[in-house]
Amino acid sequence: MAKLPKQYQFLDVSDYGRSPGHWIADSLKNTRLTPIHVTTLFIVSGIMAIVSMLYEYNVIAAFFLILKSILDAADGELARIKRTPSYIGRYYDSIADIILNFLFLFTFWYITDISIIFMLLAFVGIQLQGTVYNYYYVILRNTVKGDATSRVFEDSAPIAMAGEKQRTVNIFYRIYDILYIVFDKTIYFLDKDASNSKPFPKWFMTLISVFGLGFQLLFMAIMLLLNLEEYVIPFFIGYSMLILVFIGIRRFVLK
Asked: What is the pTM for the complete model shown?
């Protein structure tokens, strides 16, 4: 099930895991496994990638990075197939992503000679990239009545959905807010009027999708396969310069 109505769907270069993720979700639709179980599996996959990197099994590490991306798509697909969307699952997914992103970059720092300062800069860059992508994507979904599990402004705990406990939603929201508030507020400050814009054109969303987590993980995997892991952190620092370019396009071309 798509997140957007057909007429607004675009080529998402970070979403290569959607088709295999949908296949996995479809295979699990009549089982007791829930989207949260699948999210937990992608956490395990991410940890396996890290362990493989530490032992210099780069091919295996690349495999688990891509598997993590596929499972990251599968949990949402399973929620839509079973019609069991949840805020707990949405926050659990995001919390797992940011922690794993930090650990991936920390591992790249550990196995190379790059400064820890550069690693932290790359982490901030990766998170801002992902925030730009999610910010515009969620705005588009809400504008055209697509998937509404994610909100444009995560400024308060949402009302729990059917099957969820409000207390648990509140706890997961607070953790999410602590981890993401700086990145969310930064991008909102840079483009406050984005939610008032007309639906973004497909070419713009495809352009922005190069900041998606799937694309970031794909780049990491490719660099591991090429034994070029020392270039991962510098790349993401430089790549972050495009944030201002994309925001500028939204503000001055698509206003």
From this structure: 0.94
- Distance of alpha carbon 23 from the chain centroid: 20
Q: What is the pLDDT of residue 151?
A: 76
- 199 exposed, middle or buried (CB, 10 Å; 0-12, 13-18, 19+)? middle
Q: Which residue has the tokens 């197939």?
A: 81
Place of tokens 């550990």: 110
The number of CA neighbours under 13 Å toward the Cβ of 105 is 24
pLDDT digit string, tens, across residues 134-187: 999 999 998 887 666 677 778 889 999 988 999 999 999 999 999 999 999 999
Complete domains list, the chain, with CATH: 14-252 (1.20.120.1760)
- Specify the DSSP class assigned to residue 253: T
Q: How far apart are CA 212 and CA 180, in angstroms?
A: 16
